[in-house]
Amino acid sequence: MHYGPADAIDLTRLRRALVIQLRHHGDVLLTSPVFAVLKNRAPSLEIDALVYAETRDMLDLHPAIARVHVVERRWKDSGPLGRLAREWRLFAALRARRYDLIVHLSEHPRGAWLARALAARYAVAPDFARKPRLWKRSFSHLFRLPPHARRHRVEVNLDALRRIGIQPGEDERRLVLVAGEEAQRSVDALLAEQGLADKGFIHFHPGSRWPFKCWPAERAAAFIDALARRGERIALTAAPEERELALIAEIRGKASARVADFSGKLNLKQLAALTARARLFIGVDSAPMHIAAAMQTPTVALFGPSGELEWGPWRVPHRIVASGEHPCRPCGNDGCGGGKVSECLTRLPPEAALAAVDSLLAR
Fold first, then answer.
1. Where are the beta strands (DSSP E) in 86-178?
2. pLDDT (tens digit per residue) in 172-199
């Protein structure tokens, strides 16, 4: 019996493919298995990526990717003519590659436009129910999204490949992130300055670009002090962004323990290298949590309004810390009632996170 779609694609007859993911850092990292699976099925296939410029570090150095093309958000600040010139240069570079296959993994309209303009023989994208007919006619293959089931985003991305006849193997689904030798050397020097040994510290990243996903500063501080009383060394990190740095300053002001603070000092590659050296990672639902999973660092993840089944640490030993007293979660809202404060997070006690740490370390 034949298993798979009747309109499956023979990858061995293709030369080049383009995978498009125009979303945030974590979303881009969660596409990394797609490239690995495609390359494993067709080793001669050249596979490119199209992402936002700030997320490039999630994919460059990926062994299955030939080129990473980028869209700059700041192009819109260069005026109509300036933006048009930059968009044209990008389009010309993409057109010159003559893609046979386009895999579009989000709802961004640019994917449908490129599928038509680049005249790829095959193009696959999610079958969004509310998208107009033009969207559906832009692609040769549409893959169904689970209407009710909670499915991890990695598997949803891989559904694009299943739709064209590629069944991913169990050993192909891990996240791929290459920090690179330069990042590793610089992080080793920073750790040596702080007296932190390889696997001799816990990495805590309490912030997120979305404050409603964050633990309150007083609870994070109490958690740090409890870890320090047990003799643990803690490395703190945060993005070089005003709100995240303010959260770190508030946490440090409330905590009495000494920490190694790398907040705002690391790029994404260095953050990956640091996480790889950690004994354990602790954080909220954010890109650094996915980076920890990619680096195979055991992870404790605090979840509030977002769903751990869809966004949890992928294929790494982990523990989820989430409220059992809020049947409304995961609601997907930006705080209770849209008020930017999530009670399912603000009421999570430090003891719950400590229990998760103990459980994971005991493993």
1. 101-104, 122-126, 141-143
2. 999 999 999 999 999 999 999 999 999 9
